[in-house]
Amino acid sequence: MIARVLAAELAAHIGERVRVAGWVHRGRELKSVTFVIVRDRSGLTQVVTAGPAPAQETVVEVTGLVTANSKAPGGVELVEPVIAVLGEAVAAPPFDLYRPVVPATLPTILDGAPVSLRHPALRAQFEIAAASVAGFRSALDAIGCTEIHTPKIVGSATESGANVFGIDYFGRRAFLAQSPQFFKQSMVGVFERVYEVGPVFRAEPHDTARHLAQYTSLDAEIGFITDDRDVMSVLRHAIAGMVSSAASRVEAVSLLGARLPEVPAEIPVIHFAEAQKLLGGKDEIDLSPADERWLSAWAARELGSEFLFVSGFPMAKRPFYTHPQPGNPKYSNSFDLLFRGLELVTGGQRLHRHADYLAALAERGESPEAYRSYLDVFAHGMPPHGGFAIGLERWTARLLGVANIRQTTLFPRDIHRLTP
Amino acid sequence: MIARVLAAELAAHIGERVRVAGWVHRGRELKSVTFVIVRDRSGLTQVVTAGPAPAQETVVEVTGLVTANSKAPGGVELVEPVIAVLGEAVAAPPFDLYRPVVPATLPTILDGAPVSLRHPALRAQFEIAAASVAGFRSALDAIGCTEIHTPKIVGSATESGANVFGIDYFGRRAFLAQSPQFFKQSMVGVFERVYEVGPVFRAEPHDTARHLAQYTSLDAEIGFITDDRDVMSVLRHAIAGMVSSAASRVEAVSLLGARLPEVPAEIPVIHFAEAQKLLGGKDEIDLSPADERWLSAWAARELGSEFLFVSGFPMAKRPFYTHPQPGNPKYSNSFDLLFRGLELVTGGQRLHRHADYLAALAERGESPEAYRSYLDVFAHGMPPHGGFAIGLERWTARLLGVANIRQTTLFPRDIHRLTP
């Protein structure tokens, strides 16, 4: 048997008979000749034949002679081919996959996702996503983090009562985890530095371009920090790893025409109170989407950075486990990372003392009983720690300039969509 | 500020004043001197002081002079220390974490998991698990796989109606995915070769040592195979990567006294029918646990391999998407991988033609309607493909000789256990 050769490797085989395999990307029957373009995971192969072209998306195996042709994709084509069908296509794809610009609306793309995503420009987005995750992990591995896998089924909806999916758990009420927050914090007590890449679930009732019922969260939590500046430093390191790994997918980046950002050695930081002044003397407790856009544009213009940390977010807008800013407890040791006009990451330092947790819950009028198994962890000695969570689909969308995160999710789940 | 030094690095700093930080693993107050053993993620540091020892699990920062002492852990100790408390321990750990053998029963360990897992021998298991996953991914990256993230919320309980968790999904009925089977198959149409590391859910009503309500599945699916032998070859490659990566955690392997297996260049394969003969002329359609043990011992004894593929499993015991064995459709192109007496992995070739799926469902008396979005994929041209799934917790348990997979799960979920 002749071993299979990928499209991208063909140019090294001119003059040889080789076997390629893939999908019929396009067939063009001219008067005297037929061009069959075969797509595999590495690219396209032009096959020159006399017969009719198989239907689009038929899976074929082609044995033929590799010949130079400067007008063919990759500068080579296969002539004198023998074409065998490995898998019939008995239905037409939802749109022509060979058109450079996807000729379909978002609902059409999503309804036919398993086939739509075969379009090279759609597939390339997920290659960038996969590379980003690999970069995240290798950056964190390099600083001694341990990867963990935590429960997605939890006994109480601790992080926020709303937006949580209920499950029938052997006759008991349970919930889908909205984040691995409590687990990753507790695992700082075991491994000091941890990360998790996994699904999180939000019963998000609003149909927006930014929210999904399930997304992939890249979570990290780091012990023995001084304060949130150490967390920002680890986040900067992770982001740099993600960008650099994405950049290594040269073909995908080029196909998408993606402009990847520079990650400054130190991402500029502005305190929330300073940001309010810059925004014209505001006195809000949160940033509006317009504020995020303005601050992001300001950082790009004035500081030459597409990334901007806004630190010291008001405690009023942060969860109870957030560490207040020493000396000014109106603010917190927590931050948002803005990227190209949007909040990309939220992170910060957490409380680490048992008594501080009890006080924080009391101040918010919440019962410690609901958080008992979480609070127990802090009764057993925990170091100062903090972390962050990056939404993978949002990251990929921002990186590639895609407006709706459904486009950077293989099979999005939202209030309307439960299939495919 | 003096930068923090890890326990494992101390020997390189003899004669220097350094700062270490960690948990009080043990305090021993003798007549004239107190030894405080501080545990960090790299190991133990002996601190020699005059005062009382802080309570077990107190988080401390110690600045002291590194001095050689052949009787101390790592051959060095810290003298003239200044000890500062970073995080108080206000409750005692569930058991003494410093005892070499964990002095607690499984329920005690699991009830106090966030603290129990600080025990070096328990933590080391999860370092091996993390290394195994890293090895799985790098082996598959090396052969051109793309990592995917698929929905854990699905619209129909396709794989098997039983053992599925129901969710209230915005007022509709939905389910937790029992496997990424259908998604990973469909993504072969996009990426040719994919893998996913993620949670899967089984409403397992039996309280066994081998089953959990959630576990971490290492899934792979590979297109353009000839048959299941190619799948076995990829699985062998992945397993070799996992073992080799686990072996790189020298400290953890040594602490656990783990004997890691040799992965043969070719793992021996025995056909199910042959296995029946070896088992004394049986004519069953599945292997019993006793059969698995016998065959595994036979392979170790006769073939010198701790791994054994049993191929050609009867179709009667395999899901409808399994590819039958050409020429003998009583059997299938699917296999189990036995390891140290137990089934570790199931895998095989899948059907890839639309008509074959329709026929397979009709033969089982099932309606294609329930599988519509899955079947659609095969109407659009799919290559011959196959794959496998490795349960991470079961893998780690087998590798380390642990009897119950709850011990190799950070926070196990079963019919009784929903916390911590």
UniProtKB/TrEMBL annotation, chains A, B:
Entry's localization field: Cytoplasm
Binding of L-aspartate, residues: 159, 202, 346, 350
One Pfam family here: tRNA-synt_2
Superkingdom of the organism of origin: Bacteria
Signal peptide: none
Major location (coarse): cytoplasm
EC number, as in UniProt: 6.1.1.23
Binding-site list for ATP: 202-204, 210-212, 343, 391-394
Job of this protein: Aspartyl-tRNA synthetase with relaxed tRNA specificity since it is able to aspartylate not only its cognate tRNA(Asp) but also tRNA(Asn). Reaction proceeds in two steps: L-aspartate is first activated by ATP to form Asp-AMP and then transferred to the acceptor end of tRNA(Asp/Asn).
Assembly notes: Homodimer.
Protein name per UniProt: Aspartate--tRNA(Asp/Asn) ligase
